């Protein structure tokens, strides 16, 4: 049996002194709170300070389909609802889930910090959003990992997790997970989520150093499904991180190297991977949905892509997609599109003579990716076209499992 989703990231723990609430680094600390200081580059790249003047994600629920979230972490308290565990029975009785990867991702999405005015600890992209924790994977140190990845009863936990999250009221679903092959049940679950207005964001995978026929890195699911925002990772120079998968499923990118996040038991971790990049993009999607709750998933995706920075030559490539997500610009673009949301997928969109919301006329074109084409969303003016996907019959390679490891420097 094929392995179910595995976290797409590599982590290392940052030692902490619990009594003082301070972090210890091998280098002298740059400021009193090294955790928030360690987030400075991400906050700057996404222009979060500017974005927070418009939206902080209030009223939005982001489902984190992962290894579980620690609801007691001081940077997440009051923001996490623990949902269903679809891995139940894989671990031996009495073994508690580790919840490292899931807690880390949740903190990047909705961490609210702690201490005076929340200025200590992790601040997520959407600090006022709520998190629904849905456990659909085990981390490889858990004793039931082998059972989980071989028993037939766990084959469609991701599909079941998606449907559960939708029915529990999720507005955005973060899937910092990846697996080698698609299933019919997963495809149907994604179609169901989109039909309910839920934005789906998934990791492109960490096999960027491997090539299929020399032309592209392996495709990963659920990221490569039509309608899912597939996220690649960039390094500190906002170029494709060497581990990030490059293929025509990649829609946008976000920082994915040396990303500070929270771990269970009030710990903090630094890591790299398309997992982290995906969580950041899910946070931006949450900001948009909070401001424009009725905005349809294709239009949210259009806001993310049309506003991206560091665009590649020609507007698109398989390394970083349409560019690096920018929270402040994405909200501005969403505001521009908000008046057109209701007609974006209806027959009226094809009638250039019919007035649109706001008194404008003209078509809104939403081109949804099918099995052989990358999704292209366009509004008012046509977006850049993207080449056809490679055949889905290629045998894909499972991305590397999450492991504690020292971060290697990107070239």
Plain-language structure description:
The chain is of the alpha/beta class and 411 residues long. It has a single domain, classed as 3-Layer(aba) Sandwich (Rossmann fold). It is 23% helix and 18% strand. The chain has 10 helices and 18 strands. The chain has helices at 34-38, 40-46, 48-51, 100-110, 145-148, 157-167, 184-195, 274-291, 297-306, 327-338, and strands at 6-7, 10-14, 16-17, 22-23, 61-66, 80-85, 112-114, 120-123, 130-135, 172-175, 177-178, 199-203, 229-234, 252-255, 259-263, 267-272, 366-367, 376-377. The strands form 6 sheets. Strands 6-9-5-10-12-13-14 form a 7-stranded parallel sheet, with helices on both faces. Strand 17 and strand 18 form a beta hairpin. It is globular.
Offer a concise description of the structure:
With 411 residues, the chain is an alpha/beta fold. Helix content is 23%, strand content 18%.
